[in-house]
């Protein structure tokens, strides 16, 4: 049994309750001296976490609250069977197959260097039965599984059944029959940037032939958690009260397991050397404007509010670019169009919106879930989301020589009608559009899938920057 002393030795507090999340981010678990002594005897949080994770308290290296993004992902997995585990499958070429021991060693080094790969998530309740999720970094042993059927492995109870808190959330496996490597991670533990960091460690170890005996530990993810607990400024708070006060949650259709077919289309778009309008307009603004105007046409409105995810790597946290862990934030993004507005004016407005959000990205949003936002005139309940991933210079770190990604099933499940994912590279954008036809309708789904790349082309052409919006989009 863990004791108060052992908890303090691990740097963890003992207290009478768990403090729940506050708007703008979770509140760090701290030992409040001003809290009156509880009537029952104090318990050790370390003991509770160890028991839920089925480990000894000595195996716990760190513990801190989850971000709102992580909380939503875990709650979804608890509520919906088989939700949020991502199976990334790679075909092993000869270079890897002939030296599988080195490949395993490289992953073991990455496993030890990145605490996020050894993180579990536990559930705690305070005296009022308010639930808080805590992430627990475990001093765990690296495990490698051998499977004989990749698809059957993905359908096993640990992934297809209800999620139980406290269990491992990262798994490594080799399918010897198909020569596949399967990396399974719960989405509460990673974002695209985190994956690039981890793959970068694996690649560095591979190039060093596994002779990296020890690597400097990454900056702890708890730094990001500490950043989230700081109270937002008045300016950040007011940023979220206006103009989104009228953009309330729309129809709550709940979560779904996507029992029906999902339409998937996509393509590659070559970026132009220059952009219309101001030199301060970036490709991110062009993408968001094209997506917003596509939705305006599809839903026949000139005023759109949709939830958007952002990387979150722009916050003022020391070492944020080296921290492995999800920094994703979500925010309501508003785009308006007027018939007398030029395209350049539209793009500058969108860029201004993006720039303003960068300063306050994590504050004031109570739920980062991809729920519907009612369009500002109250007539439409849109359930759409735009995801933008900036891979930057880390794109080549995603794969080792000798590895190929294997196309899998539709990876996103939840309360979304449609989603467009854009991966930005130096000279091109790779876009993929997903639509739930049963909920959105085939006609609207097909319209969006065709119109989005068309508007992306139009908005990226400098020759169109002085044209009026009424000549470019049909509302």
From TrEMBL:
A single Gene Ontology MF term assigned here is:
phosphopantetheine binding
Q: Where is this region: Disordered?
A: 233-252
Q: Does the keyword Phosphoprotein apply?
A: yes
The Gene Ontology biological process terms listed for this entry are: amino acid activation for nonribosomal peptide biosynthetic process; secondary metabolite biosynthetic process
State the GO CC annotations.
cytoplasm
What InterPro entries does the record tag this protein with?
CAT-like_dom_sf
Q: Which domain of life is it from?
A: Eukaryota
Give the record's family classification.
Belongs to the NRP synthetase family.
Q: What is the recorded name of this protein?
A: Condensation domain-containing protein
